[in-house]
Amino acid sequence: MTQTTDMKPTRQQARTAVGWHVEMEFEEDEHRTRAAALLRLADGNEVRAHGYASRHPSDSNQPRVGEEVAGARALNELAMRLLTKAHDEIDEASGRTSHPLR
Fold first, then answer.
1. Cα separation, 29 vs 80, whole angstroms
2. Is there a contact between 92 and 52 (Cβ–Cβ < 8 Å)?
3. 37 forms bridges with which residues in the sheet?
4. Residue 22 has pLDDT above 70, yes or no
5. In 3-state terms, what secondary structure has residue 50?
6. Which helix (H) or strand (E) holds 70?
7. What is the pLDDT of residues 67-79, one digit of tens each?
8. Could you tell me if 23 and 37 are in contact, meaning their C-beta atoms sit under 8 angstroms apart?
9. In whole angstroms, how large is the CA radius of gyration of the chain?
């Protein structure tokens, strides 16, 4: 632990580390991939989202590509839900309508 001589905490001591856990699950068949994303926040709240990918019949079967597309879409939706949650919390705390977060 680093301290200054007058025993005040340094900037490094004032930081708080917070971890989030994201879980991804996939379901696949020959033509479609579904991704489910779950974000567990430090306060115990959860945010969920889904994404999908469809394979064109003329495309070769590449499950990893389907997972990547469906996973990216689920994470994108998860990000938008998290922004909406933060926006709502800002409005609630301030008592006024704020500008949408992007």
1. 27
2. no
3. 24, 49
4. yes
5. strand
6. helix 63-94
7. 999 999 999 999 9
8. yes
9. 20
Q: Taking the model in full, what pTM does it have?
A: 0.77
Please tell me what DSSP assigns to residue 44.
S
Q: What span, in angstroms and rounded, lies between the C-alpha atoms of 48 and 56?
A: 27
Cβ pair 86, 78 in contact under 8 A: no
CA atoms of 31 and 70, how far apart (whole Å):
12
Instruction: Return the closest-CA partner of residue 81 out of 39, 26, 43, 53.
Output: 39
Residues 7 and 32: their CA atoms lie apart, in Å, by 60
**3-state SS assignment for residue 59:** coil
Read off the tokens for 6.
């007058």
Q: Which residue has the tokens 């579904």?
A: 34
